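Q: What structure does this chain adopt?
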Amino acid sequence: MHSRTRKVLKWSAAAATLALLAIWVCTRWFYLWLITSAGITIHINSGLIAFGSVGSNPGVTAGLTLQRHSRPRALRLWFESTPPGSLPYFALPLWLPAVAFAALTVIAWRGGRPPSEGFCAACAYDRRGLDPAAACPECGSSGGSPDHQISTRLEGTHNGLRS
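A:
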């Protein structure tokens, strides 16, 4: 992945994670309801984002509503779906996409880094103490190939600390 793309991805994913967590917490006090002209509803309430339908209710108009709860609500932590006899909907807990974006953030921040010095560039096997020209005992990559460059700067160390 290109450096610019990685930079955009890691900052966007980090911002999305923080925004979702902030929205999740704020849903204790606020309720957001969006109704489209097609009768599709999206509402965010009590830690959930729900997708549903208003059905054929003629009194409901399209629009966006933000309301404050009269008292703080408990955050619901798991999925919900349509109870029998009500309009169809499916609710997803907001922490779930926040965790997915957090994982993407970690992958984007950690990915693309060269392996630590003294480790195999192909499989990250600890090669300290081995002959730099020898093949990696873990993956078999040759020590002299350009894609298997290792550094011996940390030789004589244990976990990065001098003995």
